[in-house]
Specification:
By secondary structure, the chain is of the alpha+beta class. About 40% of the residues lie in helices and about 25% in strands. The chain has a 5-stranded antiparallel β-sheet with strand order 1-2-3-4-5. β1 and β2 form a beta hairpin. The longest helix is centred in the C-terminal third of the chain and has 21 residues, at about 85-105.
């Protein structure tokens, strides 16, 4: 859970709280896809309203939700449109993530 951020200026406290919340959300997000195998790392979280990050073993996939669809970029590669089964899986993962985070971090129903 987020910790207190005393003794810092307002901007530093805000950044620190945001970082703590992202870390807490990511800790829940990584559980959506089952146990993380030993020696591996995994992160899944919402960075901004329309930006989602999936990180596993040194590879980062950035998903951007735009007016004309969902697009992904693997590491520094080009953006490609997400379609078909991958789009369905992304939608299901984001819904599950939001439900889990709202219930466990923000205590919403």
């Amino acid at each position: 859970m987020p910790k207190f951020h005393l003794g810092k200026n307002l901007l530093d406290r805000r950044k620190s709280v945001e970082r703590d919340l992202i870390n807490a959300e990511s800790a829940l997000g990584r559980t959506l896809f089952g146990a993380v195998p030993a020696g591996r790392s995994r992160e899944f979280f919402c960075l901004k309203e329309n930006v989602w990050l999936w990180y596993e073993n040194g590879q980062t996939i950035r998903y951007e939700v735009r007016k004309n669809g969902v697009f992904k970029r693997i590491d520094t590669g080009p953006y490609t449109k997400v379609t078909g089964e991958e789009l369905k899986n992304f939608a299901a993962a984001t819904k599950s993530y939001l439900r889990l985070v709202k219930r466990n971090i923000y205590h919403e129903k």
